[in-house]
Structure prediction request, 150 residues.
Amino acid sequence: MARFTFRLESVLSYRRGLRDQVQQVLARLLREDEEWVEKAAAVEARKAEMMDELKQIVSAGRLDVDRAAMRRYHAGVMAVELQVIAQQREVVAQNLKRVREVLAKMEQDVRLLEKLKEKQLAEFNAAEERRAGREREEAWLGAHWGEFAE
Prediction:
């Protein structure tokens, strides 16, 4: 019995490889976004700490201007850090969007080739079944030819 060979198997394999690489890029971008979220949470927590210390300094009976000014300065620096983090997350979000679009297209291409392979395999199997049926018929006729010749 003949074996089925998909003529576009190398193309399918190549497209699968590309798709896998894009999936790895997507995973890396998702990890990067999560890291930015964690950094933002840490900066936000430090900023809240600074603001609490500032409130304690102000609410204390005696105002320490230098300490209060330093806390305000650090809170301002952290606010700028949060803006930078937000901008970085926006860049990552744009990249994620592009990568997801590319991945969707690659998934579609791979599925298309896989469906073509399945269709060709089904056609091959049907043709093989017809060929095997004809061979069985011919073998039966050959074995029983004498019965019909009489």
The longest helix spans residues 65-149.
